[in-house]
Amino acid sequence: MNGQIHFTLNGEKVTSDRHANERLLDVLREDFKLTGVKCGCKEGECGACSVLLNGVLANSCMVAMGSIEGSEVVTIEGYSKTKRFQALSDAYAQTSAVQCGFCIPGMVLACEALLAKNPNPTDAEIRKGISGNLCRCTGYNAIVEAVKIAAREGKGLW
Amino acid sequence: MESISKSIPKRDHFPKISGSAKYVDDLSFEGMLHGKIVRSTVACADIKEILIPDLPEGYFVIDKNDIPGINSVHIVDDDTPVFSDGTVNYVGEPILMVAGKDLKVVNRLMKLIKVVYDEKEPVLDMMKSETIFYQYGYTKGDWETAFREADKIIEEDFQTGYQEHTYMEVQGMIGFYENGKSIVRGSMQCPYYVHTAVKRAMGLESDKVQVIQEEMGGAFGGKEDYPSILGCQVAVAAYKTGKPVKVVFDRSEDIICSPKRHPAKMHYRAAIKNGKITGIDADIVYNCGAYTTLSPVVLQRGLICATGVYNFKNLRVRGKGVKTNTVPNGAFRGFGGPQTFFAIEMFMDHLAKEIGMDSLSLKESMVVKQGDDSATSGKYHFHIPFPEMIEKLDQMSDFRKKREAFRNQTGRYRSGIGLSLVYHGCGFTGSGERDLIKGVVKIVKNTDDTVELLTAGTDMGQGLKTAFAKIASDTLEIPLERIIVQNPDTDRVPNSGPTAASRSLMVVGKLLQRAAEKLKRDWKPGEYQEFVEKYVHPDFMIPWDLSKFQGDPYPDYSWSANAVEVKVDTLTATTEIVGAWGVYDVGTPIDMAIIKGQMQGGFLQAIGYGSMELLDVNDKGVIRNNSFSDYIIPTSMDVPHLETEVVENTYDNGPFGGKGAGELPAVGGAPAYVEAMENALGVNLHHTPFSQEDTMKVLEAFKK
Ligand code: FES
Ligand code: FES
């Protein structure tokens, strides 16, 4: 079932001739060299491979290429060029929320998805928003704190 | 707060958060092959035959016959094979590697390879093992008299389970062989461990082996010994194929074959006379798995910690590490300490009930102070801030009031609060720093007056690069931007020792500080200069004698007090963790936010160890829950109120007063959690993890 799949990747129109049942994660990492998209499990459990798919947080390891025709995919590489990213990055730096960093690109996109829906989340809402993204290093507090700082200091961005 | 403690953005913040940092799986090289390892599917067998299909052009099988040096991975001892030598001793043991350009083809070939086994009865139960890898023991005072003259002797058994590291980045390495030189790069804590191992397996001289650390996505001890094994395998594969060979595990493979925290069974006895504990006798067994790897040192630390933070006058501690046909266990944050600390903390709680005291009062009355003898007849040379720490913990958690209020509860929801007092000995155990590691650092000043710090220290997320840079910048009084810290490459850095044992900051950081002081005194603008600094053993230490198991195993200790509060629904057996509080003494924090992050992350891992992280090994020795959907680790929702504080207790022999930090928070979480559960359920509990099923069992027993 090979053919061309068309989608938008970090704002650019792209095509892929991968088979429809291939994982978006592998295509992003191998064909587009977007290695900021991490693989922690390949079974939809860790969130390291998170991307924004039409603005919604998705585990790219669970997304089949056949399902993304015409979709808009944003990875950390694209998102890191935005002002919103800058606000989140500054906040993460303030709380030293980046430890090993492996969960972080996915985590940042989870924070974006959350703030886009809810610009002033409570602690509990933040914890719920990032609950699909495992982090083994931080204990999550510094990340929760960073989201609050970003929401406060990035006023108007979300 | 000391000025150095003020937090700065971490050095690796931007590359990591923007996704540009390269981890081993993100690297690709010209002509690189992908390797996958065929592993034993049985726990104990001789291999009768291996049937290998015809391999397409450019595809290879690499096994024991391809090893140019010795088929053994040097760790502490040398019993771990690089590839099976004809027998297999656990499910997951590496037999051979298939390598080739296309991973899909490699995976297909893997399925066509048939290993024919002559199966033997495996030993899976550590109590039935007849192979003792290591055993140690020590006594203090006159334990025999204490037990002979006791009014009452109390005996209990404790048990702790496996814990899997689940670093988010799985194990991975790439091997190269170029012009007679083996080069290995990847995710590892200890480049020089890998260097030593590869030298031996490849039969090469030191200068013909180069090991380079890439960005590391977490480790927690899990990448202390294992990269030596994988490093040898990729080195041999590159040698045979003449191409770079990359092996990166799947999550399930990683869970099946990478080391874990040693499960332990611990029998404790206490002699009680006139309402006082007069003696302790502990008999401890650690399950090493199929090979020895780091077990001797893990067991030593476990035994040193066996009587916790209390000053018992008379004691006997014995322990052994035994072989089973299960995955070899290794280093995990806390390194043998969390098991025995769990036992002694629970035991103290139970003994308090026997004696008719509340648990915290008993603990406070016996806690060690500066000047006291340690369990191994060493000395606590420095201030031990438990009184301040307990006060602070009580303020944060309201422990004393709650403990009182949670007595004799009825009704559907029951609350409980538990507390633990623990330490982590800073640095390598015993005389390791002096006799084995002999750490060396080098500091180089370039002609542009930038300064590079050359150590074998690796940053696995704990913030080592940032902490080292701060130490150098503050000592030299030059801006941080002029300090260079890169990932270690053994061709460039001296062997400052492994990044393990909470030693990096205290030991290596101190060496860097001393080198920086020399450079500062001798600073010549615009000139190239270099300074080498070697480890000097602290002269106040009482010499460690392993044969007697006596002396100072560590120069100093980091201390912590932990409390956890739970609310149990007795109808559904579900438990909500209402709060978790930790107070830590890690000397002067070199960076407050980094220390907080370490404490919070470690504490959450420890609560996971106490409550939910349950590895399920079946009666064939197979780990059944080899995925994140079945091996459950804490998410952001599990402990929403986790608070940590530090007390500042300067350690004069550490850089700017700092001492070991990374492992400390992993020690006290489990006993605090399980004590909270027993407080809520009104029973004595003896094992960790204490899961929802366990709660259900206790509740069912009440009904009968
Ligand atoms: S890699 Fe996709 S969820 Fe873990
Ligand atoms: S920072 Fe390491 S897993 Fe989150």
UniProtKB/TrEMBL annotation, chain A:
PANTHER family: OXIDOREDUCTASE WITH IRON-SULFUR SUBUNIT, XANTHINE DEHYDROGENASE IRON-SULFUR-BINDING SUBUNIT XDHC-RELATED
Pfam families the record matches: Fer2 (PF00111), Fer2_2 (PF01799)
Entry superkingdom: Bacteria
Domain 2Fe-2S ferredoxin-type: 3-79
Name of the protein in question: Aerobic-type carbon monoxide dehydrogenase, small subunit, CoxS/CutS family
Gene Ontology molecular function: 2 iron, 2 sulfur cluster binding; metal ion binding; oxidoreductase activity
Keywords: 2Fe-2S, Iron, Iron-sulfur, Metal-binding, Oxidoreductase
Keyword Iron listed: yes
InterPro entries in the cross-refs: 2Fe-2S-bd, 2Fe-2S-bd_dom_sf, 2Fe-2S_ferredoxin-like_sf, 2Fe-2S_ferredoxin-type, 2Fe2S_fd_BS, Beta-grasp_dom_sf, Diverse_Oxidoreductases
Lineage of the organism: Bacteria, Bacillati, Chloroflexota, Anaerolineae, Anaerolineales
Keyword Iron-sulfur listed: yes
Species name: Flexilinea flocculi
UniProtKB/TrEMBL annotation, chain B:
GO molecular function: iron ion binding; oxidoreductase activity
Span of domain Aldehyde oxidase/xanthine dehydrogenase a/b hammerhead: 18-121
Pfam name, any one: MoCoBD_2
The protein's name in its UniProt record: CO/xanthine dehydrogenase, Mo-binding subunit
InterPro entries registered for this protein in UniProt: Ald_Oxase/Xan_DH_a/b (IPR000674), Ald_Oxase/Xan_DH_a/b_sf (IPR036856), Ald_Oxase/xanthine_DH-like (IPR016208), AldOxase/xan_DH_MoCoBD1 (IPR008274), AldOxase/xan_DH_MoCoBD2 (IPR046867), AldOxase/xan_DH_Mopterin-bd_sf (IPR037165)
Keywords for this protein: Molybdenum, Oxidoreductase
